[in-house]
Task: inverse folding
């Protein structure tokens, strides 16, 4: 799936909320949707994250990092892997 | 009959007034809406003599009245202007608009109206903005009267249960909110829900979960064209607020989340 649009201003918290909601849905292509969302918002992760605010929002099967770009890569790799299964 | 009273003569005045209004609208004069409102006021009799009803004229006045910029704190600039009779004013602030000494858009007047009365783009927009503005003022006042402090010296703010209960909001505001929220789904419903979410929740995770649910509702109720119009309306509505405002930032995030869902 290609990047649908570039979402410039959205913060990391709403992105993680959206990922949580897509992951808990019954959509058949939910992991591809998450990858699409991540591809649309990569630049928004280029900052340091606050573990108190963000850690609990990341699924257990993803490795958390306070470095936003690293977290983005971990999320992207994991959900891409799930999409391929 | 004097020449100035001939029907055809007043019709030309209406045409001339409309041309001037159109030119002003397309121009960039900072006081263009004041000038348009003056033209409407000066030509009220002519409009009424040439087929426009009092309601239509009022709706038009209200439409242009609300094209003015929103101040940094989210409120509208108070403005008063004279009608034809020098001692009659239209006054506007977040709580009250008085037209010819009749309270047209205050909360008490609005809650006396049934849903069908709001079946007009202008009335629905102005009523929604009036309500949101009034609620915001009450909200700011509610937060500013909190005195309890936390260990670091900052204000503790109200508890989640206090915020959620809406006990700080006058019951007529809640009644009007429920009436407007019950109208056929539109961009105004979405705007009201967005305001409601911010009123009820402090936690950003909860706020964005609720926004995501509302986005799903919007997509299931509106066409693509209506959704695009909604995005423009929400962004325009918040464009006068400070860039770093949490409220503005959340509204933009809501728009981007909606854009993502629309593209799926």
Result:
């Amino acid at each position: 799936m290609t990047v649908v649009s570039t979402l410039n201003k959205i913060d990391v918290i709403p992105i993680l909320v959206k990922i949580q909601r897509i992951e808990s849905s019954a959509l058949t292509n939910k992991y591809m949707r998450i990858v699409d969302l991540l591809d649309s918002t990569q630049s928004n992760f280029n900052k340091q994250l606050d573990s108190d605010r963000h850690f609990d929002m990341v699924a257990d099967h993803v490795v958390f990092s306070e470095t936003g770009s690293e977290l983005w890569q971990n999320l992207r790799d994991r959900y891409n892997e799930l999409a391929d299964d | 009959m004097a020449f100035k009273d001939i029907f055809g003569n007043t019709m030309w005045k209406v045409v001339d007034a409309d041309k001037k209004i159109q030119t002003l609208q397309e121009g960039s004069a900072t006081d263009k809406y004041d000038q348009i409102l003056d033209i409407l006021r000066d030509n009220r009799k002519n409009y009424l003599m040439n087929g426009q009803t009092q309601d239509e004229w009022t709706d038009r006045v209200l439409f242009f009245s609300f094209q003015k910029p929103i101040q940094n704190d989210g409120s509208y600039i108070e403005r008063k202007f004279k009608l034809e009779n020098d001692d009659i004013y239209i006054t506007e602030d977040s709580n009250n608009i008085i037209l010819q000494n009749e309270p047209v858009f205050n909360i008490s007047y609005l809650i006396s109206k049934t849903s069908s009365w709001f079946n007009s783009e202008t009335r629905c927009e102005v009523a929604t903005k009036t309500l949101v503005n009034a609620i915001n003022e009450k909200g700011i006042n509610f937060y500013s009267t909190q005195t309890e402090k936390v260990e670091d010296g900052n204000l503790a703010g109200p508890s989640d249960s206090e915020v959620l209960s809406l006990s700080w909001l006058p019951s007529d505001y809640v009644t009007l909110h429920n009436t407007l929220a019950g109208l056929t789904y539109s961009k105004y419903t979405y705007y009201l829900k967005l305001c409601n979410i911010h009123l009820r929740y402090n936690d950003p995770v909860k706020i964005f979960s609720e926004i995501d649910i509302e986005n799903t509702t919007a997509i299931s109720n509106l066409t693509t064209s209506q959704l695009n119009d909604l995005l423009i309306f929400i962004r325009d509505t918040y464009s006068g607020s400070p860039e770093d405002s949490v409220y503005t930032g959340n509204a933009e995030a809501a728009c981007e989340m909606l854009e993502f869902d629309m593209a799926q």
Observations:
- The longest helix of chain A spans residues 68-84.
- Chain A touches chain B at residues 4-5, 7-11, 13-14, 17-18, 21, 33, 36-37, 40, 57 (CB under 8 Å).
- The mean pLDDT of chain A is 90.
